[in-house]
């Protein structure tokens, strides 16, 4: 089986990893992405999902040792990747999430073929606070939860009330193909018999977070990790390095379109302007458990957040900074909190006076221009049914805690759409890289 896979085109990277924060790579594997825009209940849901996600991030180290809470991908505003499973293959559009590492698919959508092999490994992955989820750390679900197989998808298996977001199912080994030709065999795909708190049209998630995030997800083997798709591509010789490059394009329309890209094995330098600047994953918890980095933030020339740790997260929509930094940002911009949307709003005069919001990483500065700091006005009506179509809304929000928590910023989709981002797990503790693109300074949002 592996021999057959190895007969496919092999990818050889011509660059090597060095200690320098600035490096140049070439990438030969690129896969297009489709943008998703789903605002069924407006920005209130977007913010609620972001807030629940960040609460889950913060809870990582306060839970039991191995059973950890992983936040769900933002199911309203993000990107899908076409993934073929089985032989003959069925194509599924899976959401991309750099804040979780498990790849799963709904049982109701899964089509078994000759390559599908069921295992005895049971998975329960929480994506939000679940009070009865194995708090004793023994690898079993608590409070008499039924672990029997064959439960109806979406059924509440523990009967407890409250907001819970999780998937529960069985690992199947199957052939998985990305982009129509990048294939791995016997990949551990979680087939979710129960999906709780996630919209029905969300078929599944492609987890691109660090593998350690899967600790505790295996019900009978909580100390074991579940390999990621990047791990398997590397293990089976399809890529030389465990690197994923992410390219998003700013959104100004509702229409889904091919306007993003993943590259496996290395970054796609054709999407970058200048060099890629790398920084090591932070050692400060809780950001260290995710794709977390150290940086400082200035507004214009004024420092609003000293060097501290935070998270790069494709599953969050907006850009969040610590409360003390947000207060300085609000004062400097003159933004007024809008009760309807939950965003800061500014006048056109204030917009013209906006200064760059600067992120200082490894001695380099990555700046969000004034246009990059606002929500795209053509989509104002999607923020809320009563949103002012002529208003200017800022995308910077309060993270809800003051600096020093280990998660002092969360750079979500609105940041990633302005910079090419590289997630490198080929060495410990991993690295994150950034580069400017043709879309870094465009002015389409006004």
Name the structural class.
mainly beta
Radius of gyration: 21 Å
Mean pLDDT, to the nearest integer, reads 80
Q: How far apart are the termini?
A: 53 Å
Write the SSE topology.
Layout: H1 2-6, E1 22-23, E2 30-37, H2 42-58, E3 77-85, E4 90-97, E5 104-106, E6 117-126, E7 166-178, E8 182-196, E9 204-207, H3 229-235, E10 243-247, E11 258-264, E12 273-280, E13 292-299, E14 302-312, E15 319-321, H4 323-333, E16 336-337, E17 344-346, H5 348-352, E18 357-361, E19 364-368, E20 392-393, E21 396-398, E22 409-411, H6 413-416, E23 419-424, E24 431-436
Parallel strand pairs: 4-9, 5-8, 14-22, 15-21
Antiparallel strand pairs: 1-12, 2-3, 2-11, 3-4, 3-7, 5-9, 6-7, 7-8, 10-11, 10-23, 12-24, 13-14, 13-18, 15-22, 16-17, 17-20, 18-19, 23-24
How does this model look, in words?
With 446 residues, this protein is mainly beta. The chain is 11% helix and 33% strand. It is built from 6 helices and 24 strands. It has helices at residues 2-6, 42-58, 229-235, 323-333, 348-352, 413-416, and strands spanning 22-23, 30-37, 77-85, 90-97, 104-106, 117-126, 166-178, 182-196, 204-207, 243-247, 258-264, 273-280, 292-299, 302-312, 319-321, 336-337, 344-346, 357-361, 364-368, 392-393, 396-398, 409-411, 419-424, 431-436. The strands form 3 sheets. Strands 19-18-13-14-22-15-21 form a 7-stranded mixed beta sheet. It has a 6-stranded mixed beta barrel with strand order 3-4-9-5-8-7. It has a 3-stranded antiparallel beta sheet with strand order 16-17-20. A hairpin with a 6-residue loop joins strand 16 (336-337) and strand 17 (344-346). The chain is globular, with a radius of gyration of 21 Å. It starts with a helix and ends in a 10-residue tail after the last strand. Residues 1-20, 22-28, 39-44, 60-76, 129-152 and 154-163 have low confidence and may be disordered.
């Amino acid at each position: 089986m592996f021999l057959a896979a190895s007969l496919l085109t092999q990818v050889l990277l011509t660059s090597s990893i060095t200690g320098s924060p600035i490096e140049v790579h070439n990438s030969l594997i690129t896969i297009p992405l489709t943008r998703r825009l789903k605002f069924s209940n407006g920005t209130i849901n977007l913010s609620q999902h972001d807030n629940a996600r960040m609460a889950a991030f913060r809870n990582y180290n306060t839970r039991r040792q191995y059973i950890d809470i992983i936040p769900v991908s933002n199911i309203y505003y993000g990107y899908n990747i076409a993934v073929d499973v089985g032989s003959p293959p069925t194509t599924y559009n899976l959401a991309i999430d750099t804040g979780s590492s498990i790849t799963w698919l709904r049982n109701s959508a899964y089509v078994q073929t000759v390559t599908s092999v069921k295992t005895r490994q049971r998975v329960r992955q929480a994506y939000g606070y679940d009070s009865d989820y194995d708090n004793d750390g023994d690898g079993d679900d608590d409070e008499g939860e039924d672990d029997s197989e064959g439960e109806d998808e979406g059924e509440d298996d523990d009967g407890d009330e409250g907001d819970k977001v999780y998937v529960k199912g069985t690992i199947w080994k199957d052939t998985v193909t990305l982009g129509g030709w990048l294939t791995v065999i016997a990949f551990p795909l979680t087939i979710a018999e129960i999906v709780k708190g996630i919209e029905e049209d969300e078929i599944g998630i492609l987890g691109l977070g660090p593998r350690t995030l899967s600790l505790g997800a295996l019900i009978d083997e909580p100390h074991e990790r579940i390999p990621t798709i990047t791990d398997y591509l590397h293990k089976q010789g399809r890529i030389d390095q465990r690197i994923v490059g992410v390219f998003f394009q700013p959104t100004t329309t509702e229409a889904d379109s091919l306007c993003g890209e993943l590259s496996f094995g290395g970054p796609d330098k054709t999407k970058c302007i200048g060099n890629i600047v790398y920084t090591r994953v932070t050692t400060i918890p809780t950001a260290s458990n995710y794709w977390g980095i150290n940086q400082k933030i200035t507004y214009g020339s004024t420092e609003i957040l000293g060097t501290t740790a935070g998270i790069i997260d494709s599953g969050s929509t907006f850009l969040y900074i610590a409360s003390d930094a947000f207060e300085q940002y609000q004062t400097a911009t003159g933004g007024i909190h809008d009760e309807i949307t939950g965003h800061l709003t500014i006048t056109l005069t204030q917009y013209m006076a906006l200064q760059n919001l600067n992120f200082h990483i490894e001695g380099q500065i990555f700046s969000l221009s004034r246009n990059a700091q606002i929500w795209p006005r053509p989509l104002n009506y999607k923020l809320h049914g009563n949103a002012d179509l002529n208003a200017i809304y800022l995308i910077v929000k309060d993270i809800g805690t003051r600096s020093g928590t280990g998660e002092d910023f969360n750079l979500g989709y609105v940041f990633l759409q302005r910079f090419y981002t590289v997630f490198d797990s080929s060495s410990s503790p991993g690295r994150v890289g950034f580069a400017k693109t043709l879309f870094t300074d465009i002015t389409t949002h006004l």
